[in-house]
Amino acid sequence: MLKNHQETLEQEHQPEAIAVRLNQQPKTQNVSDAILGAIDGCVTTFAIVAGAIGAGFSASVALILGFANLFADGFSMAISNYEANKAQSEFIANVRKTEEEHIQKVPEGEKEEIRQIFQRKGFEGETLEKIVATITQNTSLWIDTMLMEEHGIQPQSPSPIKAALTTFTAFVLVGAVPLIPFLITDTSIYQQFISSAILASIMFFMIGMFKSIIFAKPIFISGLSTLLTGSAAAGLAFLTGYILRVQFGL
Asked: DSSP letters along 14-58, please?
């Protein structure tokens, strides 16, 4: 297994393979948007259900509240993510415009910034001057370098629409799972609630496992961590509903 992995790595790092990979347009990742939507969808939907059951409401009320929250909160979250990514894109565009203006008006000053940036990385002498000359003869590369090195931001911003759609889709798909038992009308409300809790727990654990695969983290620990987070939120919602029911005699 280790030998095959080593061979794969060596093949991927052959000059031809590297050239092909670098010639491809970098793609923005929406993994974080999917995870955010999935976790929030499952947490908030099951929390609504838990709060409704804790308050003594019927299964139909829990189902209505759950689905109402599913689409309303999912849409709200998608819009928020869209606006956040749009603001980030506008910020990057504004910084890029500022750097372009500085290069036009004070090119020697901007060259000195490049020089000092790479000097701090350990380059000096003729090597340093060649780096400065290479970067500053290409305006696009020059600006991209300033964005990353001076401002600490990536030149390529994520698509706001893609981020919003990813968040909304993950929210709705995962958030709908805890509501499935309440569609089965020939079981008691407590059986429905227990089934919903089991499904929600499975979703939480699977989301954690997905994170561990993407970010190379321990599967069980990541799954358990997400499960505990979701369970805590649902438990708080159930307790709140129960206390209010007792307090107001619902």
From this structure: SHHHHHHHHHSPP----HHHHHHHHHHHHHHHHHHHHHHHHTT--
